[in-house]
Amino acid sequence: MSHPGQQCLSEKNREFWDAKATSYFSEDWIQQGSNQIVETLHDRKDWIGISWVDSLPSSPTHRPHQVRMLDYACGPGLASRSLFSSISSLRGIDVSAGMVTEFNRVASDVDLYPERMHAVQADISTDPPDTAIAGQEWYGFDLALMSMALHHVADPKLVVARLVDRLKPGGVLVIVDRILNKDEDQEKRVGNGSEGGHHHGNDHGGHGHGHGHTHDQHPAAHTMGSSAHGFEKAQVESFLLDAGCDEAELVPLNKPMKVPETVSKTGEMHCFIARGRKRNLKL
């Protein structure tokens, strides 16, 4: 059973993103942030470190290997679609039915069969797993991505562990999110009367795109957990190592994202890309 607080915030996210599914990504700053994430993913393909479909030579006697990718909190798939030419199949999961519809509409518009690109509505944090993602076809991925959504969860460590569990041994989890803004985080905690304590938020509902909406005036503020202002390097790396990765690394994006002041008072948001490789099983 999921914690009641997690279910509550998941529902808030579901309602918010269902309403925004067809309009949110038309905002200029969202598009610019998404483009920056797409550029980062392309520039860091070698650093991500999997055997992409286009990284091995083809021949009449060589059968192309399969590269399966999972996009969690996928939204319309803006980030994951950028890697589509380098993978064999893409699966998306989102709590919002509206976002899942957008993801699958895009696949249909470019004549991709569900076998190659398809998303379902589900929440990876539930116990037992949602039936939509309980089958073996939702395990054994070469690559999983969670872009600008980890700050929407109550228990980031749990969600990271669940995603690593969906990888095959040697598979890689990539996380893109916000580097902790300690000044804004402190202001929030003081305002909530939680200074010096551990403030608990609620569960998942962000969507894989280029946004970060952490200021209390932002209309999506109610959809975020206690990590709304981001994560520290050691924190994310510990999530990955504790989840069963034998290596973990986090690096900042080359430049900050330009965002409205309702997102960050400075008008800038510093983000990171992190990767963890699932430990290979030893015979």
Please outline the helices and strands.
Layout: H1 4-20, H2 28-43, H3 45-48, E1 68-72, H4 78-81, E2 89-94, H5 97-109, E3 117-121, E4 141-147, H6 156-165, E5 167-178, H7 182-191, H8 233-242, E6 245-252, E7 257-258, E8 268-269, E9 271-278
Parallel strand pairs: 1-2, 1-4, 2-3, 4-5
Antiparallel strand pairs: 5-9, 6-9, 7-8
Task: Describe, in plain words, how this protein is organized in 3D.
The chain is α/β, with parallel strands linked by helices. The chain contains 8 helices and 9 strands. It has helices spanning 4-20, 28-43, 45-48, 78-81, 97-109, 156-165, 182-191, 233-242, and strands at residues 68-72, 89-94, 117-121, 141-147, 167-178, 245-252, 257-258, 268-269, 271-278. Helix 4 links the parallel strand 1 (68-72) and strand 2 (89-94). Helix 6 packs across helix 8 (233-242). Mean pLDDT is 84; it is low at 188-206 and 209-216.
